[in-house]
Amino acid sequence: MSDEIFKVFVLEDMPVDLELVKRQVRKFNPNVLFAVARHRAEFEDKVTMFQPDVVLSDYNLPDMNGLEALLYVREHLDSTPFIFITGILNDEEKVAEAILTGASGYLLKENLRNLPELLTAVIKQNEQAMAQREIEWERRRDNQIKLGKSIAMIRQLNVPGSDEIALSLQEVADNLR
Questions:
Q1: What is the pLDDT tens value at each position of the chain, 177 positions in all?
Q2: Inter-residue contact 35 to 10 (CB < 8 Å)
Q3: Can you say how many angstroms the Cα of residue 126 is from the centroid of all Cα atoms in its chain?
Q4: Residue 77's closest CA among 104, 57, 99, 51?
Q5: Which residues of 41-66 are buried (b: 16+ CB within 10 A; e: fewer)?
């Protein structure tokens, strides 16, 4: 485990459950910094400013549900892993909805001892996805540069139809952004 601080945001309204989650996270990485929210306003005020490495959320909270929290994270912290830790997400339909909405995983509170392994898998999967995004971004950037050079060369030819070809290539380049 690296010496970097692992930032974990926990959305949980039950103090005992919060402490149990913290204990398991420390088994994954003892060098952890927690931010905690118990309700919507506190969550929305803190989560984007904290910039967590992962969000752990209960499903049922006093004034919101976990899916609302997940959608908020996807909107404001797109690539941040989000894991449900809950006592009631044992309904297959809700599990499917959570995953399809963008959750990185879920864990029943009765299986909390498995949190370190789940965190390992989710963080690794997120790192691979980020690396793949970086590769794709580099490929698109390289293609834009090549198209830009091609457009400049075509415009320099100054032959009939070169402006139309250059405009068509410019449209392609604009669509790559």
A1: 557 899 999 999 999 999 999 999 999 999 999 999 999 999 999 999 999 999 999 988 889 988 899 999 999 998 899 999 887 655 666 666 666 678 888 888 889 999 999 999 999 988 888 888 888 888 888 877 887 787 777 777 777 777 777 777 777 767 666
A2: yes
A3: 7
A4: 51
A5: eebeeebbebebbbbbbbbebeebeb
Kindly report the pTM of this predicted structure: 0.74
Token look-up 């293609």 returns: 143
The percent helix, strand, coil of the chain (3-state, each to 5) is 60, 15, 20
Q: For 81, which DSSP code?
A: -
| Type of residue numbered 155 | R
